[in-house]
Amino acid sequence: MLRRIKAEQLQVGMFVSRLGGPWINHPFWRSRFLVSSDEQIEQILAANVQDVWIDILKGRNLPMQSTPEVADSEVDAQPESGFEDELEHARELIKSGRAVIGSIFNDVRMGHALETNGALLLVDSASTSLSRHSQALLAMARLKAKDDYTYLHSYSVCALMIAVGRTLKLPDGEVRELGLAGLVHDIGKLTLPESLLMKAGDLSPAEYEQMRRHPSAGYRILNEARLYTNIPLDVCVHHHERVDGKGYPFGLFESEISVHAKIAAICDTYDSLTSPRPNHLAWSPARAMEYIAVRVDTLFDRRVFKAFTRTVGIYPLGTVLRLRSGRLAVVCGQNANEPLRPRVMTFYSVSQSAPLPHEVLDLTQSEDSVIAFEDARQWGFTDEQLMAMYAPHVK
Ligand SMILES: [Fe+2]
C-alpha cells in the first residue's frame, strides 16, 4: 500500500516504491528499495527529489503525528475524478484495504495491539477517494463476496460514515475519527468463535447472547490498544443501541445516544443488509433503504437518516427500478431536490422480455415515473453487470 511523503520525511527502514520527478536524473537506478542508511537519504535530498512514495506494507511507516498534515494536503490536492476513473482507484483501494484490515484483525486475534497507523491510512485513502468522487467508493464497496464480508464490511462502513459525516458538515477531525470508528466498530467480533460468525442458520438464544457481547469486547480491545479517541470507543460500544431504548448493550434512549453512534447504526445496518452473509442474501440497496426508513424514530434517528439519504440517495446508484412505461432502468444519478425521481438508464422491456437499447432519462424531465424497485438478480443481472452498464452515464 503506497503512501506519498515529503522526501525530508524519509527514514531508515522505509521501503521506497517510487521517487517523485524524472527518475533518470536520480542516482538511484533501482527506484524500489529499502532505505538502509542516512547516506541514502542525504543522496535523495541532494538529487532534489521532492516527493517519495513509500510502501507501508514492506517497510516503516511515518510516525502518527505526521499523518494528519500529509493526509490533509493530499485531500486538498485531489482533483475531482470521473466516476469510471475513480471506480478503478476504488477497486485498488479496496484490494489493498482488505490486506491491511486482514493483517490488523489477525494481530488483534493473536492478542497483539491494534495497529492504528495502518487503520488511519485506510481512513485517509477512503476520504481522498470520496473527495475525488462522492459515489465511486461507496458503489464499489457494496460489491463484496460472502467470504470477504468480515473485512470489507468494516471498510464499507468506514467509507459510509465519512460520507455521512461530510454531508452533516462535521469538522474534518471528527470525520476522520468517524472513519476510524467505522473500521473498528465490529472489532469485538474477533473474540467470537468463527463457527458463530459463519453460522448459516438462526442463532440459538445462547448464541445470540454471546453475539450481543461484541460491543463491550470491542471496547476492551480498543482500550488495550490505548486508542483513547472518543468517537471510535463510543461507536464501538454503542452502534447497536437504538433510539427506542431496545438496543444493546445498555438499552440507551434517543437523547443518550451520540450522533456518531446513530450514524454507525444506519451505516452498519445498510451495509449488512446489502451484503451477502452466511445467513443472508444481499438485498437491493432500495430494499435496505426501505427497511431503515420504516424504522425511523423506533430504531434509527430521523436527522441522521435524512443525511444518509442525501449521501447515497433514496434509490442509491445501481438500484433497478420498474418504470410506468414497463421498462426496467438502473439508477445512474440523483436529483437532490427530487430524490424519488433520479436519473436512470433504461435497459430492459418487461412486456417484451427483451433487452432495450440503453437510454438515459432524467425522471424530473420525463413523462415516465417509478412504480417499484426490483431485485436485479431476479432479472438475471449481477450488480457487477449493472455497474458496467450504468457507470459510463454517472456524472
Ligand atoms: Fe456490530
From TrEMBL:
HD-GYP domain segment(s): 128-324
Spell out the Pfam families in the cross-references.
DUF3391 (PF11871), HD_5 (PF13487)
List the Gene Ontology MF annotations in alphabetical order: phosphoric diester hydrolase activity
Instruction: Give the source's domain of life in one word.
Output: Bacteria
InterPro entries membership: DUF3391 (IPR021812), HD/PDEase_dom (IPR003607), HD_GYP_dom (IPR037522)
Could you tell me what this protein is called? Metal-dependent phosphohydrolase, HD subdomain protein
